């Protein structure tokens, strides 16, 4: 009778462990998906913000360029056009970020860092351990 109860209890324990493992796996998958969705939404907000900023920067650039050209035509001094060069770089950068391939170049460079230059992104002191986290949590309680 005792060995029969032991077998039943072992089966129930194994079923329970399997269920818990599957539940933890599903929870982890959901957390990963949620984090990825949040990252995608944050990136979409950043790019949308960059596009909005580009519209304002390009409008300023257009008005400033008209003023510089008008000033040059009136005064015939080339120094009036000097701000055009840095403004062109600023507008070009904004355009590249908002509609160009800058995001793809950044992603490609990040992937290269993860593969080829792992030491650059390593955390100082390594990944925090459970013991360190628990010690910090206990210290914060005091």
Describe this entry's structure for a reader.
The protein is mostly helical and 142 residues long. Helix content is 85%, strand content 0%. The chain contains 5 helices and no strands. Helix 1 runs antiparallel to helix 2. The protein is elongated and about 105 Å long. The model has no long low-confidence stretch (mean pLDDT 92).
Which terms would index this structure?
mainly alpha; 5 helices
Briefly characterize the structure.
The protein has helices at residues 2-75, 84-98, 102-116, 118-121, 130-141. With 142 residues, it is an all-alpha fold. The two termini are 53 Å apart.
Low-confidence residue ranges: none
The count of DSSP E runs of length 2 or more, i.e. the number of strands, is: 0
Q: What level of helicity do the residues show?
A: over 70%
Q: Count the helices. How many?
A: 5
Distance between the termini: 53 Å
Structural class: mainly alpha
Overall average residue pLDDT: 92
Major beta-sheet overview: none
As a whole number of angstroms, the C-alpha radius of gyration is 29 Å
Global shape? elongated
**Helix-strand string:** HHHHH
Task: Provide the fold topology.
Layout: H1 2-75, H2 84-98, H3 102-116, H4 118-121, H5 130-141
Helix pairs in contact: 1-2
């Amino acid at each position: 009778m005792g060995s029969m109860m032991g077998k039943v209890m072992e089966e129930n324990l194994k079923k329970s462990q399997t269920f818990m493992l599957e539940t933890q796996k599903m929870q982890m998958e959901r957390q990963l998906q949620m984090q990825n969705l949040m990252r995608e939404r944050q990136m979409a907000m950043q790019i949308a913000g960059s596009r909005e900023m580009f519209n304002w920067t390009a409008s300023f650039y257009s008005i400033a360029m008209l003023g510089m050209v008008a000033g040059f035509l009136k005064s015939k001094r080339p120094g009036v056009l000097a701000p055009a060069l840095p403004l062109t770089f600023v507008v070009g950068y904004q355009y590249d970020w908002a509609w160009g391939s800058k995001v793809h170049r950044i992603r490609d460079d990040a992937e290269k860092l993860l593969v080829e230059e792992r030491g650059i992104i390593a955390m100082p002191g390594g990944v925090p351990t459970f013991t360190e986290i628990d010690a910090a949590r206990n210290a914060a309680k005091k």
